[in-house]
Write a structure and sequence with these properties.
Blueprint lengths: L5 H8 L14 H11 L4 H14 L3 H7 L1 H7 L7 H17 L7 H5 L6 H10 L10 H11 L5 H11 L5 H15 L17 H4 L25 H12 L10 H5 L7 H14 L4 E2 L5 E2 L2
Antiparallel strand pairs: 1-2
Length: about 290
């Protein structure tokens, strides 16, 4: 168990970042869009794109009927484009199985494509205000340091579940997310400003190494370098497809920006194949690519 009191956290978080657009809605579709956008993408980049995306796809039905290519096109610049495919697939599933109404049950949400334990609980907490705890990299870091030890996924979720104040799930989860993002940070945590410093086992021990958050379930280890990577070349190819053109195999290398690489043709072909495999592109009989 963690002796983390709710009142100091809720008081500290009151009014903080409540102007974030996804915190102004209880629409499960909007909540799902925001959660998928926020995965591995900075808040500052998501804010303007969130409104833009919902203007084009205001409802789950609008997204499902638009086609995956339109969603991939609108996702430009957000990275990790497989999320766009999963979002569209989830929208189709909600329309087909639930008549366009989001289910408010954990198992039904987990059955949606691309929706994992965190995202499913986020929809429950932030759209339906059910007593569900979300554990992302920020919350996982707070929990591990409070406990003073590395946590498995099941332990972290159990600890988080036990902390949710009844009837205050929305405010509590937002507060915990902010606490990890703004105070209990990965590097140089602001322990002197922490509202629950007194209950933190790691702080009481003098914040020794190794940090218990490192290696704990749910706590990210950082992203690999993008510049010059395979992901960058693949992203360039996809960006060209987003312009509406069909790209022939002879153009794959230039589209990826790999004209000077010795393995350029092989890697460009692999990039094209991976886009098709991920549902981000379709390939014609002549080998050319286009958006789905």
């Amino acid at each position: 168990m963690i002796d983390l009191a709710a009142d100091p956290v809720l008081t500290w978080a009151s009014g903080r970042r409540e102007d974030l657009p996804w915190r102004l809605t209880r629409d499960p579709w909007a909540v799902l869009v925001s959660e998928l956008m926020l995965q591995q993408t900075q808040v500052s980049r998501v804010v303007p794109r969130f409104a833009q995306f919902l203007e084009r796809f205001p409802t789950v039905t609008a997204c499902a009927s638009a086609g995956v290519g339109a969603v991939v096109e609108e996702w430009a610049g957000l990275g990790y484009n497989r999320r766009a495919v999963n979002l569209h697939r989830a929208a189709v599933r909600v329309v087909e199985l639930h008549a366009g109404e989001f289910p408010a049950q954990l198992d039904a949400l987990l059955a949606l494509p691309g929706v994992g334990p965190y995202t499913a609980r986020a929809v429950l907490a932030f759209a339906f205000e059910r007593d569900a705890a979300v554990v992302d990299t920020n919350v996982g870091r707070v929990l591990a340091r409070q406990a003073g030890e590395r946590l498995t996924a099941s332990t972290a979720q159990s600890l988080a579940d036990a902390l949710v104040p009844s009837g205050q799930s929305w405010a509590w989860n937002q507060a915990m997310l902010d606490l990890g993002a703004l105070v209990c940070t990965k590097r140089a945590p602001l322990c002197a400003r922490c509202p629950v410093q007194e209950s933190c086992v790691w702080f009481a021990a003098g914040s020794p190494e190794p940090d218990p958050a490192v290696g704990s379930a749910g706590v990210s280890t950082g992203q690999s370098r993008f510049e010059g990577s395979f992901r960058q070349g693949r992203a360039r190819l996809l960006d060209l497809l987003r312009t509406g053109v069909a790209v022939a195999p002879a153009r794959f290398v230039d589209a990826c920006g790999w004209s000077t690489r010795e393995d350029a043709q092989r890697e460009a072909s692999r990039a094209a194949e991976s886009l098709v495999a991920d549902g981000l592109a379709v390939q014609a009989e002549d080998g050319s690519l286009r958006l789905p």
